[in-house]
Write a structure and sequence with these properties.
The protein starts with a helix and ends with a helix. A 5-stranded mixed sheet has the order 1-5-3-4-2. About 1% of the residues have low confidence. It has 16 helices and 5 strands. It is an alpha/beta fold. The longest helix has 21 residues.
């Protein structure tokens, strides 16, 4: 028989647990949609080159990872009328210039595969169910079959504009938990070991670095700090050669530095720490959006600010900026919003914008 004191304490624990649950819950409203394949591809392709497409792939997503056999099997599944998993997207609303774009949270491989097939860039291969289709492209199908394929509808879960970036990233992680292919840093640790990767691991645990970026526990588990460190050095030393294929760009740079005959560990560490000291001294909010913003810093904002600062310090190691108003400028916000393009020109523009503003240049 429990005493009144024990019962009271238990009630307090229950109340505290309920309060924490309510505090941590994120209200996410969503709608269920269905779109024909043809419309999905159209929404993805129209405006893709200038980063205005309605259906777009965000920075934190991976590049094309499915090989042609897996892509072919997906196309075969659609032709056979098999159930296809939901595509998850989010309605993006970040500023007054509301473009009503849809960020793909889960389904990028499927959208890219559909696009490749309809554009005759995919030749079906290694099919077991419909073996006569091996060697076919979309244009090789009879017109009636092409039309039926284009009319096939796929289901979509669409988060409303109330879902912020942290919510979208968290959903992406939860959907894909357990999939090794999704974690590029885990793959690099397994297949690209070397002295540079060891330095990345070391710097990723830097207390000052983690504090300035405000990494969440989920970000740390998914090795975001290591990704940030690698991106810092890769863009700092090679951003002018960036070709929009981010994972290949990072892998190539990692291989290059790992294999360098002379690895300048201490010089790289010193430059990283000098950048952190500058940010901590002149930007009280660190890499975050605001002083009281507890969200993990976005990759785009970190790259722009960290690399821009480091480049400015290379020009003037005793730099004392006259102003740090660039952080609140509309131009910087435009450069570093989550939907910003990662084309070579845009990457160079936002990095050099920070560098030049800190140096007092237009």
């Amino acid at each position: 028989m429990r005493s009144k004191l024990e019962i009271t304490e238990q009630h307090k624990k229950v109340d505290a647990a309920e309060a924490e649950i309510r505090d941590k819950q994120q209200l996410v409203n969503y709608d269920t949609k269905e779109y024909p394949v043809e419309i999905l591809v159209q929404k993805y392709m129209e405006g893709k080159d200038d980063d205005t497409n309605e259906l777009f792939i965000p920075d934190y997503q991976r590049e094309m990872a499915w090989d042609e056999a897996r892509q072919s099997k997906f196309i075969e599944s659609i032709i056979l009328g098999l159930p296809i998993p939901y595509i998850f997207v989010a309605d993006i609303h970040e500023d007054e210039n509301d473009e009503a774009r849809l960020e793909i949270i889960d389904g990028t491989q499927r959208i890219r595969t559909l696009t490749r097939f309809i554009n005759n860039e995919l030749t079906l291969t290694e099919l077991n169910k419909i073996q006569t289709l091996n060697g076919f492209k979309f244009a090789d199908l009879p017109l009636a079959r092409q039309r039926r394929f284009n009319r096939t509808t796929l289901r979509m879960i669409q988060l409303t504009e109330s879902a912020n970036e942290e919510t979208r990233r968290d959903l992406f992680e939860r959907i894909n938990t357990g999939s090794v292919d999704l974690n590029e840093m885990e793959k690099r640790r397994g297949i690209l070991p070397g002295p540079f990767l060891e330095l990345i691991e070391e710097l990723s645990k830097h207390e000052q670095f983690r504090k300035l970026c405000a990494f969440s526990e989920s970000a740390i588990r998914s090795r975001e700090p290591q990704e940030f460190v690698l991106r810092f050095f890769a863009f700092l030393n090679n951003y002018q050669n960036f070709n929009s294929k981010i994972n290949k760009f990072l892998d190539d740079y990692l291989k290059q530095v790992n294999a360098a005959p002379k690895f300048e560990r201490e010089k790289m560490r010193a430059e990283f720490e000098s950048m952190l000291n500058f940010v901590e001294k002149y930007f009280p909010q660190g890499f975050r959006q605001g002083k009281n913003d507890a969200r993990t810093t976005t990759r785009i904002k970190f790259e722009s600010l960290a690399v821009g600062v480091a480049l400015a310090l290379r020009k003037n190691s005793n730099l004392e900026p006259k102003s740090t108003e660039l952080l609140t400028s509309e131009e910087f916000k435009k450069y570093t919003k989550s939907t910003a393009s990662s084309s070579q020109n845009k990457v160079a523009s936002r990095i050099e914008y920070v560098r030049d503003r800190l140096l007092g240049q237009k």
